[in-house]
Amino acid sequence: MSPPDPRRDGRLRAISALAGRLLAFRALREALLSRTPPPPPPEGSEDPSEREVPANRRAETGVAVLLVLAALCGFGFTAAYAADWHDTQVLGATLGVCLALIAVALVLAGKLVVPQETHVEERGLLLKEDEVEEVADILEEGGEGISRRALLTGAAGLAGAGLLTAAATPLASLGPNLDGIHSTAWRRGVRLVDDKGSPYRAQDIEAGTFYTALPEHADPDAFGSGLIVVRLDAKYLHLPAARRGWAPDGILAYSKICPHAGCAISLYRYPTYQATSVGPAFTCPCHYSTFLPGEGGRVVFGPAGRALPQLPLMVDGEGWLRAAGEFREDIGPSWWSVHRGQS
Amino acid sequence: MSATRPRRSRSGSYADRRFRLTLRRAEERAGASGGIKWFLRYVFPDHWSFLLGEIALYSFITLVATGIYLTVYYVPSDTQVIYHGPYVLLQGEQMSEAYSSVLHISFDVPAGLLIRQTHHWAANVFIAAIVLHVMRVFFTGAFRKPRDLNWMIGLTMLMLAVLEGFAGYSLVDDLLSGMGLAIAYAVVLSIPFIGAQLGYLIWGGPFPGSGEFFARLEIVHVLLIPAALAILITLHLAMIMRQHHSQFPGKGRRERNVVGTPTWPAYALRSLGLLFAVGAVLILAGGLIQINPIWQWGPYHTYLSENGAQPDWYIGWLIGALRLMPNWEGPVIGGHTLFPNPFWGGAFFPLIVFGFMYAWPAIERRITGDYRRHDLLDRPRDRPTRTAFGAAFMSWVVIIFAVGATDRIFFQLYISYEQQIHFWRVGVWVLPVIVFFLVRSICRSLQRSGGHPLRAWEGEVLVRSPDGGFESVADSPEGRGSALAEPPSGTAPGQESNL
Predict the structure, then answer these.
(1) How far apart are the first and last CA of chain A?
(2) Given A88, A229, A252, A285, which residue has the most CB atoms within 10 angstroms?
């Protein structure tokens, strides 16, 4: 073994650490001031080979003790398991400590028990010019006597293309075509129900909070099913002229699926202190796209590239909330042929 | 002392004779002694940073071992069932069989939670070790010829590992899984022209997909990607052994040799020790530190989401990019939206990051004109421009990664979310430039000082003379001049061309 590096001497460590910090500061300062030429490269001509046989009985005993303890921990795991003591912490601790003891034993054995050796191995260049040439020759000789090389190459390429096409064809049956990507379960007259299936009345909808609504008698997990429903004061209602009739009693319904990346919108900002607060807004918790329900779902912040699609509502004679029509644009994230709204 | 040892006598004990006979029988059949001898004498240069790749390898082994166990219990099905298990808060909830089976693993299967959490911790450590390993390889120039091919294999493994991890926590089908899958669906959909078809192909229909989706995801997670990783790991290691390890310059170390510890016995023991240490840390973490408490999230439904949901860390950079992106979408030409917004953060950004890393060896060769083979590593300071460029690039990715946590910062520190985003939309371009110049000048300064920022001796030994004057007798503990006389290891900065 080489003599210990004096700079690593325990007594100097504290000073070194402090000096290190000073040096880092000095490095910063000097970087801005001067530039001196760097020193020359090292010589790699010395032979560092060495082999040392430790013959360390104490270390051997220590390793043995660690291994025995590891065995005990291993048996401890089995005992806990067999005794129906399925506590995750107990099982993890016994098995983990067993492995940790083996790890320490192995590293100690590797450093103190077995011979320590520094060995020098010469490294080949890999590149053997002659062999490259020979391989090329052998490969080329395999084509000796062939006259219609282009024809054969072309035919083989064609066969490959045919085979690839055939192999890729079954992929087509993995996914249906895009029929239905534009459609949702919402039609004129479909009632709004909650996640337990009970329908909403207009009077259930209070201002200052939001409700999740689903189409009655339809798949609640279809992407287009979820709605976010709120009631707004007239002072916040600034819907586009074409949507004046979409919000009976100030009740508005929007697709709950963010048109950015498809998460469900679940944050509703509602002003509690009117003087300074900004108006009501929906926010998607994934990437914080923020939409104004009072202005037709307009995007005011965040990455969403489209407004939140709005569903026209109506209230029937018995006070049930119903859809007054379909979505006029696609819900969910944008894609090549997405139907974009006007806003 | 020379490396050759005296041949031991053949007339050993009975056990020794049996041992040799066994080896001989194996040799008669496999003829592998030459290869074994070569491997036992294979030299590993000693440096702590060389262990990062080994940590990744050993995490992978842990992942396979725990993963097999989990596969036995996991049910890849979206069939809806009502939960009747021991976790009271979810009793009576409707959920998929997939989610219910993971709850079963967590609460009913003995040691199931330990194995599941160990698996999850191992995934996090696996990818972290790969990322650190990639950084080590980049900043020491180990990616240069002849290792450029292996650099690309490594990057491919990193990509696969991220995908594998995402697939893994998506299989659970809890609320966090579903939200992640929804975003993944949006990113796939955003790919120009073919996005929707591709998304339908993967999910088997519009999101949340057909009943076959979880079976598909499972086969990707438990077979396709692990098999690809295993093949690439084999190639990676075979190529390393063929070329031998690179090494830092030092005593007796040249481009044409390798100096270090042979496999047998010391290195094998130490490396096995590391294997067990990695296993120990992962199992202790799995047993004692909760990770991904899936029961808290509840089952996924498209109309539900959780506020403050965060993905596993290795997805953070993509979430950050999606958040940071201004709401550009389009252009819309003839009713077609060319680039939906998630394309930029979710697809284009990782494409740029990985594309750049794949191309870097070639870019550096082109810039420096250095097409030679390199087996000696650089100290990062000796290549100030490369180091600065790498640091700037990294800071760019790390800022975007950190932006993925802006909502957490808002909740914890009350710094407005919107202001943070507005700040970083500019900062993400300015800060890397500052990092570049800062790191480059630090490197140059360290080169001149010849010292190590954390280890260097920086003192003087003074002797006071009888007349009261001081004289410096040594500027290092080893005596005068020795600190400066020790040549800095590394490629000569004077020889560098542009990097």
Answers:
(1) 77
(2) A252
Would you kindly state where each structural domain of chain A is located, as residue ranges?
Answer: 49-117, 192-323
Taking an 8 Å cut-off on Cβ atoms, the answer to whether A36 and B448 are in contact is yes
B48 at interface of A, judged by CB pairs closer than 8 A: no
Domain holding B293: CATH number? 1.20.810.10
Give tens-digit pLDDT for A107-134. Answer: 999 999 999 999 999 888 888 889 999 9
Q: Does B281 touch chain A (CB under 8 A)?
A: yes
Q: Taking CB atoms and an 8 Å cutoff, what residues of chain A touch B445? A: 26-28, 30-31
pLDDT in tens, B294-316: 999 999 999 999 887 889 999 99
Secondary structure of residue B297 in the 3-state scheme: helix
DSSP B494: G
Q: Chain A: residue nearest B372 by CA?
A: A125
* Backbone phi, psi, residue A148, to 5°: -105, 60
Q: In Å, how far is B95's CA from the nearest CA of chain A? A: 12
Domain that holds residue B469: 461-491
pLDDT tens, position by position, B73-117:
999 999 999 999 999 999 999 999 999 999 999 999 999 999 999
The domain made up of A192-323 has a fold known as Rieske Iron-sulfur Protein (2.102.10)
Reduce the secondary structure of A123-172 to three states and give it as a string.
Answer: CCCCCCHHHHHHHHHHHHHCCCCCCCHHHHHHHHHHHHHHHHHHHHHHHH
CB contact under 8 A, A285 and B309: yes
By Cβ distance, the residue of B267, B340, B457 closest to A7 is: B457
